[in-house]
Design goal:
This protein is of the alpha+beta class and about 1050 residues long. Among the domains are: about 210 residues, P-loop containing nucleotide triphosphate hydrolases (Rossmann fold), CATH 3.40.50; about 150 residues, Rossmann fold, CATH 3.40.50; about 150 residues; about 180 residues. The chain has 23 helices and 17 strands. It has a six-stranded antiparallel sheet, with helices on one face. A six-stranded mixed sheet has the order 8-14-15-3-16-17, with helices on both faces. Strand 1 and strand 2 form a beta hairpin. The longest helix has about 90 residues. The chain is flat, with a radius of gyration of 60 Å. It starts with a strand and ends with a strand.
């Protein structure tokens, strides 16, 4: 970077526009001198400010660069033109003040191709990337600020490492150092985890016997062997406990067998006494059970023989009545069917004009469809014209808007400033609106939750109504299943006599006689006509069982549904009570649940809350928008100025576009006119609309014609179905009347067969049932008599069997056996408890041995890697000792520092007259301090090394200058051959004697070879004589407001 031109306005002491033309300098070495406080260093500040937005000294604030002599409304402006890499750049940086925002920086960098980089941050980034330095590095290499470059000479190793690390990127060194240290730390954590795992497995040692605890401590070399020995010892003890348990178990089994045999004898003697008593009681009941058998036989004959005939007669009479009702209804339906046929025929005949109209519509649609391809070409031409018109309108509108925008830009900037003044309270309003919005939102959430709960309750209430209906249906289903089961079971029982009669008939016909399976009577062929006849459609046992199961399932389902209905009703009532409580908490005036749900009360409250929330949200959005606008308006001012320049360029381009699209539009209009000729409609959409209308009309006519045809067919089918149903029903009525006559005759035969005079006697026989099912009554009585007889037989057999089993035996006292069993069982339990504890210890010891062994094995696997990584990481971090701490990173930086010292010593040898040489020391200033970058000075007059801090003021200055120049050389050489074409040095020469000063000037003059520009700030008069080319800075005479400068070529 080589300066060309610097212009300062309202910057520091330069209140008026002041220009320093570096290009006019005839020599590359120049001196900046003048009055104290006139603004010599300000020139360097201006260059730093232009490039990086800050001053040349660390204590100089960029925003404080505004001239105290200028009005605050006047912008601070610095323009700096410079050459770099064979190209020319120009950066302009400004400071603008507003009461609302204070000082606001802006910058603009003109690139060699004429384009601009705008914005303070973007210009900073571009300058740093282009020059290869940030502001701090620039101050140490190019702009050697007053007194600051001497700090590098006096810095300790840590500070010097930091400076060199920033100038010479040591990221790669730090990366490898961190990589090694990180790997070591990760492995340390892994090893620590293995050690912790082993310690965790051992625990606090209390689980081990006292004698073993000192042998089972982590770190003991024999830990693994000791764990194995403990496990073997416990295993041997467990084997002894197992033997003791087995012996106790065997003895206990023998005693229990003896006790069981004695108890069995006692139980048999007790059972014999009980069996004899039960037999005596049964013998006393014999006459009563004989009377019950006789009464059961009479009920059986009436129920099974006469009752089926009575039921058959009742069913036949009911069927005749129902057939007569169906015949009357079908006759009326037949008259309705005839009328419907006549009406449908008239509608079909009236559709003739509609058929003709539908055919005409189809022909017209085909004609229009043939025109469709032409409309694609029309659409393309219209689209092309629209695009040209849109482009033209867009260009004209853009040109008009651009002109208006540029005219109003200044007005907008004033408006934005006024806007920020208006919106200064917006952030506070936004906070208040946020609190109000949160409160409104909480109320909406609460009401929404209540509304959802009410909707849920309403859903549950609707579900309850459905459940109630389902429960009613379940009741009906259960009753129907019960009736069906009673009927089919009765028919099954009634049919049993016919089934037994058929079997008896076969036996008589084969053998000439047979024995009745019911009463045991011997019958012959003469009694066959008197046998019962099996009724038709008698069900089998499987059908009866299915009917019984269906009846039980239906009754169970009914009970389940009723219980669920009761439970859900109670739950809904509880939900209603909770909803009313929530409504009161939310100040919704509802005394009852119906009041809450009816009349829109809850809905209205929710709507009001939502409206209130919307108002609060709107207010919040407005307040937040105002606050955001307040924050963004400053940035908008910056963008406005940048956009004006781009707007003017855009206007020129838009003028060219308007001319081009005007001609293009005229040509496309002519092509569109030619395409439109010969079309029925102006656009394809109109064609589609016309075809759609034709299709719709024809479809409507087709649907009407088809509907009339289907109506006629349906009416004719209905009449045929009615006629068929009438004939079938009349035939069924005749069959039902015949069945009724047969059923009446069958009742007489059944009464005769059962020995019953008539229906009245039949009903009298069944009175004792008192509504109970006959078969159940018969079965109960038969079961009672049969159980009695069976009990008698079993009682006699039990007495005989027990008497035989106890013959010659007496009762046994088992108390002595029980005492022995208890004592033996206690011994068995104790042995088992000890055995279980021993096995648990064995498992615990084995698990501890496994976990400790695995942890120690894993730890051993990392030993070699740990030894190597620990040593490598220590080398990367540096070791602490008598000679100090030298890390890998510092070792690399030290090699760079050696190169800096080599370059610096070339200059120092010339300036000091060969007296001094800079040397790097590996030793630290104090024990355990960082080492490797310490600096010493070899004094060749004494042959001794000196600490750099022992140098005098003048010696310190020229040594620091040589060091800074050496640093600059190395940075330049390591930047890929990049040349530093400027060097600026601020003050410090006053401490040098004349000889040293002359040598220093000679060294600086040598630096100007190769077109490098070197500028020096100093008060030293001798330098004014040594350096003829000067920039003289002076305070303005008269009012003393600000400074001026002039160039003296000498």
């Amino acid at each position: 970077m080589r300066p060309i031109l610097l212009t300062m306005t309202a910057f520091g002491s330069y209140v008026e526009e002041t220009t320093l033309d570096f290009g006019a300098l005839q020599k590359n070495l120049f001196l900046i001198c003048g009055d104290t406080g006139a603004g010599k260093t300000t020139i360097f500040d201006a260059i730093m400010f232009a490039l990086f937005g800050e001053g040349s000294g660390s204590a100089r604030d960029a925003k404080g660069m505004h001239s105290d002599f200028a009005d605050v409304k006047q912008d601070t402006v610095v323009l700096f033109r410079f050459a770099h890499g064979g190209a020319e750049y120009e950066v302009t940086r400004k400071l603008h003040y507003t009461r609302a925002q204070g000082w606001r920086p802006d910058a603009e960098l003109r690139l060699p191709d004429g384009t601009f980089v705008k914005g303070a941050r973007y210009v900073n980034e571009r300058c740093e990337a282009m020059l290869g330095f940030n502001a701090a590095q620039f101050r140490k290499i190019v702009m050697l600020a007053q007194g600051e470059f001497q700090q590098f000479l006096k810095a300790n190793s840590n500070d010097r490492e930091e400076i060199l690390g920033k100038l010479f990127d040591d990221a790669e060194c730090r990366y490898y150092a961190r990589l090694l240290v990180g790997a070591r730390d990760a492995l340390r954590e892994t090893r620590r985890a293995h050690e912790d795992a082993a310690r965790a497995a051992l625990g606090d040692g209390t689980q081990f016997p006292e004698a073993w605890r000192e042998k089972l401590i982590y770190g003991d070399p024999a830990l693994t062997e000791n764990l194995g020995a403990l496990l073997a010892e416990e295993s041997a003890a467990g084997e002894g406990l197992q033997k003791a348990y087995d012996e106790a178990q065997q003895k206990l089994g023998l005693l229990n067998a003896q006790k069981g045999a004695a108890e069995q004898v006692n139980r048999n003697l007790d059972a014999l006494d009980a069996a004899r008593a039960a037999l005596a009681k049964l013998e006393a009941q014999r006459e009563g059970f004989a009377a019950r058998r006789t009464a059961c036989d009479r009920v059986r004959a009436a129920w099974r023989t006469v009752r089926p005939a009575v039921i058959a007669l009742d069913d036949a009479e009911r069927a005749v009545r129902e057939a007569a009702k169906r015949i009357s209804a079908l006759g009326a339906q037949r008259e309705k069917d005839v009328a419907a046929i006549e009406a449908a025929k008239k509608a079909v005949e009236a559709d003739a004009p509609n058929v003709e109209r539908a055919e005409a519509l189809a022909a017209q649609r085909a004609k229009l469809s043939d025109e469709r391809p032409a409309y694609a070409r029309l659409a393309a031409a219209e689209q092309a014209l629209r695009e040209a018109a849109a482009k033209l309108a867009e260009a004209e509108d853009g040109r008009r808007k651009g002109e208006e925008w540029i005219e109003k830009a200044e007005e907008k900037r004033a408006a934005l400033t006024q806007l920020r003044e208006t919106l200064k309270d917006a952030p506070a309003r936004a906070v208040g609106a946020s609190h109000a919005c949160e409160a409104a939102g909480e109320r909406v959430k609460a009401l929404e939750a209540l509304r959802l709960r009410v909707e849920e309750i309403e859903g549950k209430r609707a579900a309850l109504a459905k459940q109630a209906a389902r429960a009613d249906k379940a009741d009906e289903k259960s009753i129907a299943a019960m009736r069906y089961y009673a009927d089919i079971h009765a028919r099954f029982i009634a049919g049993q006599s016919g089934i037994l009669a058929e079997e008896l008939r076969g036996e008589v016909e084969q053998n000439g006689f047979g024995v009745c399976a019911v009463c045991g009577t011997r019958v012959g062929r003469a009694q066959i006509p008197q046998f019962a006849v099996k009724p038709p459609e008698t069900p089998d046992k499987a059908q009866v069982e299915r009917a019984e199961k269906a009846h039980k399932d239906a009754d169970s389902e009914r009970e389940t549904i009723r219980n669920l209905l009761t439970k859900n009703t109670e739950e809904v009532n509880g939900d209603v009570a909770h909803a009313l409580d929530d409504a009161k908490k939310l100040s919704v005036p509802a005394e009852t649940y119906d009041a809450l749900t009816e009349g829109g009360l809850l809905k209205g409250a929710y709507a009001e809350a939502v409206a209130a929330r919307a108002d609060a949200q709107k207010a919040l959005a407005e307040a937040q928008a105002a606050a955001k606008r307040f924050e963004e308006s400053g940035a908008e001012l910056d963008r406005l100025e940048r956009d004006m320049a781009r707007g003017r360029d855009r206007l020129n381009a838009l003028n060219d576009e308007v001319t081009m699209w005007t001609a293009e539009k005229a040509g496309r209009e002519g092509r569109l006119k030619t395409t439109r000729e010969g079309l029925s409609y102006a656009a394809e959409a109109e064609l589609d609309s016309a075809i759609g209308a034709l299709d719709a009309e024809k479809a409507a006519l087709d649907r009407l014609i088809e509907a009339h045809k289907r109506a006629l067919e349906s009416a004719e089918k209905a009449r045929v179905a009615t006629e068929s149903g009438l004939k079938e029903t009349e035939a069924q009525k005749l069959r039902d009347e015949a069945k009724r006559e047969d059923a009446l005759n069958g009742l007489g035969d059944a009464c005769a067969a059962a020995g019953v005079a008539d229906r009245a006697e039949y009903e009298a026989i069944l009175v004792p049932l008192e509504g109970e099912d006959g078969e159940r009554f018969i079965r109960r009585e038969e079961d009672a008599v049969n159980r009695y007889e069976t009990d008698c037989v079993k009682a006699r057999e039990a007495v005989a069997q027990l008497a035989a089993q106890t013959e010659g035996k007496a009762r046994v006292d088992t108390r002595a056996l029980e005492a022995g069993i208890a004592q033996c069982d206690e011994a068995r339990i104790a042995a088992n408890r000890a055995l279980v504890d021993s096995r648990a210890r064995q498992r615990g010891y084995a698990e501890t041995q496994r976990r400790v062994g695995a942890a120690l094995s894993a730890l051993s696997d990392t030993d070699d890697a740990w030894t190597q990584l620990r040593a490598l990481a220590a080398a990367a971090e540096g070791v602490t000792g008598e000679s100090g701490k030298v890390s890998f990173e510092r070792f690399v930086i030290a090699s760079v520092f050696d190169e800096v010292l080599e370059r610096a010593n070339l200059r120092l040898d010339a300036i000091s007259g060969g007296q001094y040489t800079l040397m790097r020391s590996d030793e630290a200033r104090r024990r355990n301090a960082a080492a490797g970058l310490e600096l010493q000075v070899m004094d060749h007059t004494t042959g001794q090394k000196r600490n750099a801090e022992s140098l005098s003021g003048g010696e310190s200055f020229f040594t620091s200058l040589a060091l800074a120049l050496g640093l600059s050389d190395v940075v330049q050489s390591r930047a890929g051959g990049m040349r530093l074409e400027a060097l600026f040095i601020d003050e410090g020469f006053g401490s040098l004697d004349q000889d040293v000063l002359d040598r220093a000037v000679n060294v600086l003059d040598e630096l100007t070879e190769g077109s490098r520009l070197v500028g020096i700030i100093s008060h030293v008069d001798t330098l004014k004589e040594s350096i003829p080319q000067k920039v003289i800075v002076s305070k303005r005479k008269g009012d003393g407001r600000g400074s001026r400068l002039r160039v003296e070529m000498g």
